[in-house]
Amino acid sequence: MPTLDVINQEKKKVGTIDLSDDVFGTDVNVALVHQVIKAQLAGRRQGTAKTKVKSEVRGGGKKPFKQKGTGNARQGSSRSPLNPGGGQSFGPQPRSYEQATPKEMMRGALRSALSDRVKSARLLVVDEFKLSAIKTKTFQNVINTLGLEQLLIVDDANKNLELSGRNIPHVKILRTEGLNVYDVVRHEWIIITKRAAKAVEARLTNGSAK
């Protein structure tokens, strides 16, 4: 069972926390993490590329030239894919790139990603983020005190935190229900509050119906 120090906004130790082995101490399944990230990124593709086929191009109702006697191959429309301005053969059409991913695979990949951050000592637990007002400069001072970059912060609903940090480069703030494998992997450091850590454990514990 991983035991981590709990720090405050001033980077001072204020206690410890025991994290679940099922969530933060599992073996890292690299192949599973890779597969889930591929599915996540595929799901973000818009799939709106579209070209017109012969039947959708305007014009071309008149036969370009007579059927016989010209020496040319017969043509029925000037909008044939063989002619300039014609439709395109086998061009892209709107489609979905989503890949079906079972929920347990997604939970397993997230457990692996979080466990990897714990094993590499790149996950910090903060008692809580207290911001009296929505002010980016105040939150930037907290980040400077922690001395971290490429930072993912996970907390429950905290409006002052979310709005204060949304314009800071290389810092992303997520609620526990939005925690995902891709954001865990792409950020070098993770800071999670005590209450968020327990919420994540409840969400990812083996056999959870959430």
**What is the fourth-level CATH superfamily of the domain at 3-39 and 100-204?**
Ribosomal protein L4/L1
How would you classify the helix and strand content by structural class? alpha/beta
Count helical runs. Answer: 7
- Topology as a string of helices (H) and strands (E): EEHHHEHEHEHEH
Largest sheet strand order: 2-1-3-6-4-5
Output mean pLDDT: 90
Q: Do you know the CATH architecture of the domain at 3-39 and 100-204? A: 3-Layer(aba) Sandwich
Question: What report would you give on this structure?
Answer:
A hairpin with a 5-residue loop joins strand 1 (3-7) and strand 2. A 6-stranded mixed beta sheet has the order 2-1-3-6-4-5. It has a domain at 3-39 and 100-204: Ribosomal Protein L4, Chain: A (3-Layer(aba) Sandwich). The longest helix has 17 residues, at 103-119. It has 210 residues and is an alpha/beta fold. It is built from 7 helices and 6 strands.
Topology:
Layout: E1 3-7, E2 13-18, H1 21-24, H2 30-44, H3 103-119, E3 123-126, H4 136-146, E4 151-155, H5 159-165, E5 171-175, H6 181-186, E6 189-193, H7 194-204
Parallel strand pairs: 1-3, 3-6, 4-5, 4-6
Antiparallel strand pairs: 1-2
Helix pairs in contact: 2-3, 4-5
